[in-house]
């Protein structure tokens, strides 16, 4: 008796979407290879020139273009036309992002390449007192920038934060609308107007021609306050109302709910808005020229005498180059690089503070 036997099982054909895939490291390897080729070609063409003259923007741009060509060709050979088009579109989106970053890359490269030559112990431990040629440092400008910006933050942050709390938690009607309108107007005030305003007030009530660090801090506080208000207001509004209602249901008064629930929930964003306001004013030159003035000696008294700041120092060194133009320009670039590093350190510090005070969750 013949018995029917089942035909041998055959494996299903492999899907064209999953077979012949490039390894995950392949796109990154191609990107690194493309950038290496581009940087090598641009570097060979720039032999004999200064480091600051290296065309980093062109190197990155042509490296990304070469990567798009390579990833498309290799993907069409090893995978399929559909995967090649997908990788090409992904590379185009990434290229658009890189192109948006090219001005920042060029700026950072230029500042680092020109400013690194004066990054030595003397530059960070001496002032410019009695220096007319080589040498000198920026210790007086660093102290002036830190003290003036810190005083401005001490004045602007509490005022701006409490204004934002009023607008979100208490403000209703015409008064709140008026405050919001005035804050929006202050946001667009040119920095020189803030400096002229503070200078005119002190000239009327004290004496004309007066300059001191506290005047510079006031001018910066005028510029910082609207940024803190608008940033903190938006962050306080996105705190869920359910959190407030839960606190009210437990009998917690409103002021304590704001202090213990609303502010800790939005502390990370508030710190970001504070750092944005500090970054907005720490590089101002015009209002500080009018209010804080400039000096070649170290002065740590905000209420007596003129004070030097890093933006004013860089401007003064570039405009008044003295007997050695190359040394003055090098000091100006080094001061700009120092200012960028200070802003970076302040942002890192703000991140750590926000992480420390943020409410703890079960996943932490």
Automatic annotation (TrEMBL):
Membrane topology value: Multi-pass membrane protein
Does the keyword field hold Transmembrane helix? yes
Q: Which species?
A: Microbacterium istanbulense
Indicate the family of this protein: Belongs to the binding-protein-dependent transport system permease family. CysTW subfamily.
What would be one Pfam family of this protein?
Answer: BPD_transp_1
Q: What does this protein do?
A: Part of the binding-protein-dependent transport system for phosphate; probably responsible for the translocation of the substrate across the membrane.
Chief location bin:
membrane
Q: Which InterPro entries match?
A: MetI-like, MetI-like_sf, Phosphate_PstA, Phosphate_transprt_permease
Q: Which residue intervals define the domain ABC transmembrane type-1 in the entry? A: 142-350
Q: Which UniProt keywords apply?
A: Cell membrane, Membrane, Phosphate transport, Transmembrane, Transmembrane helix, Transport
Task: Give the gene that encodes this protein.
Answer: pstA
The subcellular localization recorded is:
Cell membrane
Q: Where are the transmembrane segments?
A: 25-48, 54-78, 90-117, 137-167, 179-206, 212-229, 261-282, 332-354
The name this protein carries in UniProt is: Phosphate transport system permease protein PstA
Q: Does the keyword Nucleotide-binding apply?
A: no
